[in-house]
């Protein structure tokens, strides 16, 4: 059985070569074997998740999903690697994978192979296993700010200084406005998916 999984990310350029220390990091953007899409993998709520971040042919729909209510949902931003937990003592994560080409969930594992390949293997009922190798197209992803938000930030104490009176602060410069707008994981025109841990499908499950 050939496991053909639909996934993706827009490439804004190359990425810096990774060091051997990062060889076991499965996070980042990965081009699927047939090149039709990329999967963005990130750690969300203690598990690895993956979602479609780029499509070779934009506008895909989850038309093979057996759930009629989901047949028209966009495949861009759709979760494909689901709640994958690290196996003790090995650089391998196991959970489920959603295959949009047949609308089915499979038990699966992901295993980094060096710094620039990710091996994914899926099985039906523990047998009839198949797999493929994905190629890295983006660097590892730092821990999502969504994980910190899920734990809850400490409340501000009453000793915090009061805000300066209106009109006393100097106007923000263009650079300051740009920095304020560039929030971690924020969606942009070049990256419409952003931090996958903030996607409703993943955030609702992982947190």
UniProtKB/TrEMBL annotation:
Entry keyword annotation includes Transcription: no
Residue stretches of biased makeup (Basic and acidic residues): 58-70
Secretion signal, residue range per the UniProt entry: 1-23
Residue ranges of domain DUF2147 in the record: 28-136
Compositional bias annotation for Low complexity: 154-190
Keyword Signal among UniProt keywords: yes
Protein name as catalogued: DUF2147 domain-containing protein
Annotated organism of origin: Bradyrhizobium sp. LLZ17
Highest classification ranks of the organism: Bacteria, Pseudomonadati, Pseudomonadota, Alphaproteobacteria, Hyphomicrobiales
């Amino acid at each position: 059985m050939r496991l053909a999984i639909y996934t993706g990310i827009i490439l804004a350029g190359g990425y810096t070569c990774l060091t051997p220390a990062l060889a076991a990091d499965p996070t980042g953007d990965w081009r699927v074997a047939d090149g039709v899409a990329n999967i963005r993998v990130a750690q969300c709520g203690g598990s690895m998740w993956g979602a479609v971040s780029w499509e070779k042919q934009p506008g895909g729909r989850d038309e093979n999903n057996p759930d009629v209510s989901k047949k028209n949902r966009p495949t861009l931003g759709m979760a494909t690697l689901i709640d994958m937990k690290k196996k003790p003592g090995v650089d391998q994560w196991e959970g489920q994978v959603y295959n949009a080409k047949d609308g089915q969930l499979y038990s699966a594992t992901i295993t980094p192979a060096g710094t620039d390949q990710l091996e994914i293997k899926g099985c039906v009922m523990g047998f009839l296993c198949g797999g493929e190798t994905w190629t890295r197209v983006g660097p590892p992803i730092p821990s999502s700010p969504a994980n910190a938000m899920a734990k809850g930030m400490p409340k501000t104490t009453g000793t915090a200084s009061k805000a300066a009176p209106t009109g006393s602060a100097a106007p923000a410069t263009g650079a300051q406005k740009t920095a304020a707008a560039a929030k971690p994981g924020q969606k942009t025109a070049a990256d419409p998916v952003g931090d996958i841990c903030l996607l409703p499908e993943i955030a609702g499950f992982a947190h």
